[in-house]
Amino acid sequence: MSKTERGIALVTGASSGIGLATARALRRDGYRVFGTSRKAMAGTLDGISMLVCDVTDDRSVQRAVDDIMVHAGRIDLLVNNAGMGLLGGAEESSAAQAKALFDVNLFGALRVTNAVLPMMRRQRKGRIINMSSILGLIPAPFNALYASTKHAIEGYSESLDHEVRTQGIRIVLVEPGVTRTSFEANIVHPDRPLREYDMARADAEKLMREVVEAGDAPELVAGIVVKAANATSPKRRYTAGKAAAQVRFLRRFLPESFVDRSLRKFSRLPV
């Protein structure tokens, strides 16, 4: 495989935002890229071969992976990017709504990973990049359930990496900060809202709109994915953006009481 032919990449949730920017960046870097979306799109998008895949459906995932094997014969890189958000007080969501969120953000990544691991093992080569978030490292008022899915993907990814490393496969995390996408416009709201949270929830939604508007470009995150994909000895985690790096530093090295006060101040909650 030549330097300009990196291999075969699969990017889930590639119809817009970080997923689309990542698929484009990987293609420019020399990968043959297959992207997925829940709804049918044109056969190709900017040179990316688009497939229909619902990451909450085992058969849909397997069909997409089988299609790639028919057309390309292998998968060298998987980017688990498909995901959704949920904004509201933790107790405002039913267990069913919480399960639906985990089904996309955590178990969706698990399904696609399980589908590609056997072929990567046969190849004795493969890399899986799981899209986490800086909210996988810190508390997130009014994003408690979303943050929980990202905390879970962190633990899953790090543990899996130890299990498959001797098979020539590496699992890597990319942790974006706030990114300028349509994420907040498509965010899910609680299915059992409580009036006790109305004002705080509205404030949290306003804050999200403000920080997203000033956030990093999705292309910045895509560039970090390419770096993580091509690293000879990949790091376990790659933060994407200055704010994400600062938050990671705060969480790792500063006293918990300081982080707590800083978080409440940023979230515009009484300190």
UniProtKB/TrEMBL annotation:
Pfam families: adh_short. Residues 7-177 form the Ketoreductase domain. Belongs to the short-chain dehydrogenases/reductases (SDR) family. Gene3D superfamilies: NAD(P)-binding Rossmann-like Domain. It comes from the Bacteria. It comes from Rhizobium freirei PRF 81. Keywords: Oxidoreductase. This is Putative oxidoreductase. The keyword Oxidoreductase applies. GO terms for molecular function: oxidoreductase activity. PANTHER family: SHORT CHAIN DEHYDROGENASE, SHORT-CHAIN DEHYDROGENASE_REDUCTASE FAMILY PROTEIN. SUPFAM superfamilies: NAD(P)-binding Rossmann-fold domains.
